[in-house]
Amino acid sequence: MHLRPRTSNLGCIVRRRTKEGHLAVIPKICDLCATQGTDKLVSLYWAWIRADGRRTAYKQRVCPPCMREAYVPLIVKAMEPILTCPACGVSTVDDMDAVFLTFCIPGMPQDQSEMPLCGPCAVEVRNKALTNASPLPDRGVGVGGPQPTLQNAAEMWAALGIVPQARR
Ligand SMILES: [Zn+2]
Ligand SMILES: [Zn+2]
Fold it and tell me: Which ligand is nearest to the CA of 121?
């Protein structure tokens, strides 16, 4: 008998046990580094407005090390209340190419980030976000909310085994 992992409305994996008390087997292959590991994956829901004005959304699942290396610095920077590109630090008050990210870290409630990227960095981040990602219907699944809702980042990073580093 195959047990499908239950998912929340956003597709976050909900912990589920089989009769034997084992966790249902879920493939854990990182979309970014393609490594199969035992770590639970972080679910990412990306959305942005394309140049032609259409909203586009993708789902990606990455291992905690990739999350830490590729995306956490952007999320942390994007939490700052000033409009600067979270990737390169340039002011994006006048020219912003926003990328919206909703993410589910195992064991944590879903959260989201709005990244006020500059044009060139937005291309880079979107290319990374598209790596092995699956397109989502153009309906929006909670991504793209107006405000980031990060409240307790330290607790969240701790769940990922991440200790935020002081900025240099
Ligand atoms: Zn990875
Ligand atoms: Zn930039």
Answer: 2
